[in-house]
């Protein structure tokens, strides 16, 4: 029975293929378009393949085959057809945008950006293209280039918080802090309980070293939505910087209730517990953090400190070296390692580490001085310019 059915299928398929090849290209084209309108994409695709076999330079067939592949999310194949069509006729309407969208949906943002930029150049002010180009730069982590596009889109969509959230994030990550706070206020006007916006404002204040304001914003975020990932960690970290270890512990534990495998929260919880004198709990938390994320400088440093306190000098040396390997500019790890070498009687090694620490501190002081001098010079130039008659 199976062989009979297979034979019948082949018998019907051969005349159908012959009928397609015998039909005129124009008739086949009309059939393919009609099938697409009816949602019969597989049948339409078969006809477009026939047309492409008849004429390898059939631009429309290439474009429609790209569209059919994109519909099934087979973007690599769609891109090949779109590129082939674009090489044959760069002026075909919508082709460049279709290619850009396939790149975008694959996460290949650098390839999508020039295509979207050219489309926007040809259609200035188009809202959809403006958002797409902004988000393509966002996906490519080119945050400074995101801001003008999403600002323009937000201006055209005054009621859209969805545009303003990535805009605020791009402003934050490109260190445009006033832009973050301005956008934050716009989001609050649309949604007074936006925990995400409160967090972004908190991060902006933190980056500006305005810790009290940052803490207020993170508390507001938690009040708006106590289950948002990273908000408890953000508040805990700020409290940790203020040495408010008791409350920081609560926040890190709250974060771990939401994200039990967050290695960073475990590391900071371990450090906090160590400062609170809970050495056993601290070690357990730090070791768990290391299992989840071995490249944590803080965890290695703290385990080294705990090892020193427990008299496990060799283990402490290994932990301090691991911390230094992750961050060669860590003066704290090097200083502790030098002290440990001194205690162990390894005076040459201790002297070498102390010398490195001393050099790093001198270089840091010189860098700070030059930065401050440059800032004062820029301010003086600005004052002189303001005082100059126009």
UniProtKB/TrEMBL annotation:
Keywords of the record: TPR repeat
Annotated signal sequence range: none
Cited Pfam families: TPR_16, TPR_19
PANTHER family hit by this protein: CELL DIVISION CYCLE 16,23,27 (PTHR12558), CELL DIVISION CYCLE PROTEIN 27 HOMOLOG (PTHR12558:SF13)
TPR repeat spans: 59-92, 195-228, 229-262, 297-330
InterPro entries: TPR-like_helical_dom_sf, TPR_rpt
UniProt protein name: TPR domain protein
Keyword RNA-binding part of the UniProt annotation: no
Domain of life: Bacteria
